[in-house]
Design brief:
Helices cover 45% and strands 9% of the residues. It is of the alpha+beta class.
Length: 463
């Protein structure tokens, strides 16, 4: 078979389409290979497929899968020295090497050898016919099962159902907070407990999808009672715990001070929670780098502990006047260390200054964290007036921004969201009905399909 110069994206497309190759796969060690779960395609730095499950000679492996053209790519891409590839359990190469001497056995940092399968040996048809088929049949765009028939459904009927779902989504978010509060049964009424939980959820939102789990893990590890009223100390603890101070080669007064503080703090109370390699910078704008977001999180943490941030948030809702703008100003006025006003990363100054949080991210935090948090806080302490004011704000706040889910759902439902509650209702409809094929549980779907079930789950594709 003539070796075509095909890229890894194309190989990935073949790999995730099992009909293109044999049901019986063998590794280069002649061991049987069974794919139980292909995992999730990864658009960030790191392995091509995350959280896969395979079975080799009857033994179950869970981890990541890396796609390459040939064996030499593993070494060329320097995967052995990259911690992101430590969980790889299978390498898929498309072409074999003509010379066995060029077959470099892939290994991760700890010298563990990675099993490899040569995909071209198991194709059911020629690579040319597969190429033609893929080119002529690109990944389908998302389409709602009820589209365009749902255009015939009364608009007010759709609005009532989406409004109902918006409250379901609010309840879903408050349940997450409630579940976290249950981890603090003995201190659930303490101010510090509520402040800690608020910080955790805001940190998760600061991380976007690419660093949210890292931010949440870091936030959960912090002991608030051990943090003094010292912004530089809090900087040192956050960056040290996040793994950014280890082997930091840049030298300036700020970095040196952080290292001194961290070396002492780490020995006594705090610990490194994450490795620097776990943080994602790939395909992020500098303003979204985890370093600048950690600097902001440090300033936020200081405000939460020492400036009554939570009390201020609740009082803003109770004031009723210019609630949204006051919340935005509260987040914009968080003070960060001077160093981060002209640095996005350690050691590299930017002359234009930094933008450490934007209104779009603040809007996301208000929608997904502040509203459900204050609402649940008011429920927990029976503050009925605040409950009503939060719900009124949720119902009346006009849409500030949108995402691909709300844009596509809006277009295919012929329903234009006017408030954030409308948008949240659309997201809940997508997440809990549309992509799960639960048209028979959806009031709009029931109008169109009656009792007929849609067996195939749908998914909005966001690439």
């Amino acid at each position: 078979m003539k070796k075509l110069n095909i890229n890894e994206s194309f190989i990935s497309r073949i790999w995730e389409t099992p009909s293109y190759y044999s049901d019986v796969l063998l590794t280069t060690e002649n061991k049987t290979l069974e794919i139980l779960d292909y995992g999730e395609k990864n658009s960030d730095a790191g392995p091509d497929f995350k959280d896969a499950q395979i079975r080799i000679d009857g033994i179950l492996y869970s981890g990541d899968i890396e796609i390459h053209q040939t064996f030499k790519n593993w070494k060329e891409h320097n995967h052995k020295g990259d911690n992101k590839y430590n969980k790889v359990v299978l390498q898929v190469v498309f072409w074999d090497e003509e010379n066995d001497d060029k077959k470099v056995i892939p290994k991760v940092k700890k010298a563990r050898e990675i099993p490899t399968v040569i995909l071209s040996k198991f194709l059911k048809q020629s690579i040319h016919s597969i190429w033609k088929e893929i080119i002529n049949n690109p990944s389908p765009k998302f389409k709602l099962p009820c589209y365009p028939k749902n255009f015939e459904v009364d608009l007010n009927f759709k609005k009532r159902f989406i409004s109902h779902l918006s409250y379901k989504r609010l309840q879903y978010k408050t349940l997450r907070i409630k579940n976290r509060l249950e981890d603090f049964e003995e201190t659930r009424n303490k101010k510090s407990t509520w402040e800690k939980i608020l910080f955790e959820f805001i940190c998760e939102a600061l991380g976007y999808s690419k660093n949210k789990s890292q931010f949440l893990k870091l936030a959960r590890s912090l002991e608030f009672t051990e943090l003094p009223d010292d912004k530089i100390f809090i900087d040192a603890v956050l960056f040290g715990s996040a793994g950014f101070l280890y082997n930091l080669r840049y030298k300036d007064e700020y970095i040196s001070l952080l290292k001194v503080i961290w070396n002492e703090a780490e020995d006594k109370t705090f610990h490194t929670i994450l490795d620097k390699s776990e943080w994602n910078f790939f395909r992020l704008r500098p303003s979204n780098f985890p370093t600048i977001r950690l600097a902001y999180a440090s300033g936020l943490l200081h405000s939460i502990i020492y400036k009554n941030f939570l009390k201020e948030v609740v009082s803003i809702f109770n004031s009723e006047e210019k609630v949204y703008q006051k919340l935005v100003d509260l987040f914009l006025n968080i003070e960060i260390s001077e160093y981060w006003k002209n640095h996005y990363v350690f050691g590299k100054e930017t002359k234009s200054g930094t933008k450490y949080i934007g209104k779009e991210r603040i809007n996301d935090i208000i929608t997904n964290v502040i509203i459900p948090f204050v609402y649940f806080y008011a429920l927990e302490f029976d503050i009925f007036e605040t409950q009503g004011k939060v719900l009124s704000f949720y119902d009346k706040l006009k849409c500030i921004s949108s995402n691909e889910i709300t844009r596509v759902m809006s277009a295919q439902l012929d329903f234009k969201p006017k408030t954030i509650a409308d948008e949240q209702g659309l997201i809940h409809l997508h997440n809990f009905y549309c992509i799960k094929g639960k048209c028979y549980d959806c009031e709009i779907g029931e109008k169109i399909f009656g009792s007929d079930k849609v067996s195939e789950p749908m998914r909005i594709i966001i690439y």
